[in-house]
Amino acid sequence: RMMGGILTFLQESSMRLFVAIVVASVGFLHSLSAQAAHTRVTYPSAVSAEILGRSMLYSVNYDQVLNDDLAVGVGIGSVSMNFAANGNDADKSATFVPVYMNYYFMREGGSPFVTGGVTLITNHSSIKNRGLETSTGALEIPSSNVMPTFGAGYENRGDNGFLFRVAGYAVAGRDLTPWLGFSFGYSF
Questions:
Q1: CA-to-CA distance for 45 and 64, rounded, in angstroms?
Q2: Does 78 have pLDDT greater than 70?
Q3: Per-residue b/e over 104-118, b at no fewer than 16 CB within 10 Å?
Q4: pLDDT at residue 182, rounded to an integer
Q5: Over 80: is that where the pLDDT of 162 sits?
Q6: Alpha helix locations (H) across 13-140?
Q7: CA–CA separation, 62 vs 81, rounded Å?
Q8: pLDDT value at position 47?
Q9: Strand 176-187 relative to strand 110-121: parallel, antiparallel, unpaired?
Q10: C-alpha Rg value of the chain to the nearest Å
Q11: Around Cβ 131, how many Cβ atoms within 10 Å?
């Protein structure tokens, strides 16, 4: 019940409040991190699990650094579907494949970044019906099997390989849905 209340709050928040929270979080996290070495090119590959995020509930991701400032990634995730009218379980799940690119503003172990990409819906034909929404975030699936996503966040890639990210997203389903994601992983 508490998670549902938190998710309802996030859904009803204005985009301006959402962006302000993300910017404040990034600033706070950046102020906590020391000026670490540039570990993004030292450990260019990463595997991570994202909670909430681009796949609305969870995803497992792999990304690769292309140069000092850019990384590309792909993942797979799933979320159950509910009936929008009453919130009951629709006994269906959406399978998402997020494909994304991150641009980093700093060449240090901790850096703010912007991200953009698309989330492919692999079982689109079975869940695109109006009246269905994701169980978290109340995202209605668009008429297309491709959902654009964009956002901003903060990443810390430590000397020991530990990877942490927090990001605010806008996911373009039938409507633009603000969302939040936390990633934990390992870079090598």
A1: 5
A2: yes
A3: bebebbbbbbebebb
A4: 98
A5: yes
A6: 15-32, 39-42, 124-127
A7: 25
A8: 98
A9: unpaired
A10: 17
A11: 12
